[in-house]
Amino acid sequence: MPDRLPPLTALRAFDSAARHMSFAKAAEELNVTPAALSFQIKSLEEHLGRPLFRRLNRAVELTEAGKTLAPGAAEGFEALTAAWRAVRRLQDNTTLTVTAGPALTAKWLAPRLYEFARSHPEIDLRFSATLRQMDFARDEVDVAIRFGYGPDEGVWAMPLRKDWMTPVMTPELAERYPTPESLTEAPLLFDESLNFLDPPCDWPVWFRTQGIDFTPTHGAWFSQADHAIDAALAGVGVALGRRSIIVTDLHAGRLVAPFKTAIETKAHFRFLCARGTENRPQIAAFREWFVAEIEKTAYVSEALDIIPVEDIPPP
Fold first, then answer.
1. 8 Å CB contact between 262 and 165
2. What pLDDT does residue 92 have?
3. What is the spatial distance between Cα 44 and Cα 151, in angstroms, rounded to a whole number?
4. What whole-number distance in Å separates Cα of residue 37 and Cα of residue 122?
């Protein structure tokens, strides 16, 4: 049997019918008549030399040949669609779609985006706050900001600053808990989104930097970092806040970091995009702006004694 592929329209008709298991629904999806769709599938079966569907009274089902062909056809059309979207985006220098985690979006990006929009009115910025792993071709995303370890295989990646964390609270609470020892009596807040860090960067580790053997067991636990910081802003308790999430509130004076010791994680932020797209005008502009915005608050780190977590002795 020759390897010459059948017409694409016939394969498209088969793929749709196999997904819907209905000629009528497939015809509706492709905007053709049921008779035209049936003709396309019949021509495909003739090209193959065997049936792909069993025609039942009110339904159809795949034959063994149909079951073999269906996954490859679906995968092929998905890949073709993704490639078509990707090549169309290469011609678009006015739209930029960025994704970042919900906490970073709420606490760091959103308050600053007006500056980027003001500086680049020619770029239509779209944002998606999610931690889902991105496929740049399939998901129509141009840039992803991610926090973790990587590796970031198959994409263009630029490491950004590592994150550190230190206790933060309202100025009023800081007066009530003026020393590291006093924090053992304070209402503590916990950020469960950092449970993946290895080595861990949590309250017992920070207390060890102060020479205090204390493992808190009570407090309020939050699955999102920005929720823990919102609770700290409301005066509910003391959070072990990450630089990226707290710097805006520290700058505004809504939170204070009264103790000068911070833990630096081994994880770091990365600026990710599809390989070969890093120099597209809107991606390069956003990257330059993003790095410049990070540097604007570098002074916050200069006031702290930042200890890499791997240098902190275990208990």
1. yes
2. 65
3. 43
4. 44
Q: How far apart are CA 97 and CA 139, in angstroms?
A: 10
> Which two structure tokens, joined as six digits, stand for 39?
């003709």
**214, 184 Cβ separation under 8 angstroms:** yes
> What separation in angstroms does the CA of 45 have from each of 3, 15, 30, 51, 59?
15, 13, 19, 5, 18
Query: With contact defined as beta carbons under 8 Å apart, do 41 and 28 qualify?
Result: no
pLDDT at 113 over 90: no
**Residue 159 and residue 267 in contact, taking contact as beta carbons nearer than 8 Å:** no
Q: What is the mean pLDDT of the chain?
A: 91
| Residue 182 to residue 28: CA distance in whole angstroms | 69
Provide the 3-class DSSP secondary structure of residue 128.
strand
Banded model confidence at residue 315, pLDDT cuts 50, 70, 90: confident
pLDDT of residue 260: 92
What does the block give as tokens for 220?
A: 């309020």
270 residue type, one letter:
R
pLDDT at 135: 77
Tokens read off for 216: 């808190």
* Residue 148 per-residue DSSP state: E
Instruction: Report the C-alpha gap between 40 and 267 in whole angstroms.
Output: 54
Asked if residue 170 has pLDDT above 90, the reply is yes
In angstroms, rounded to a whole number, what is the distance separating the alpha carbons of residues 208 and 201? 11
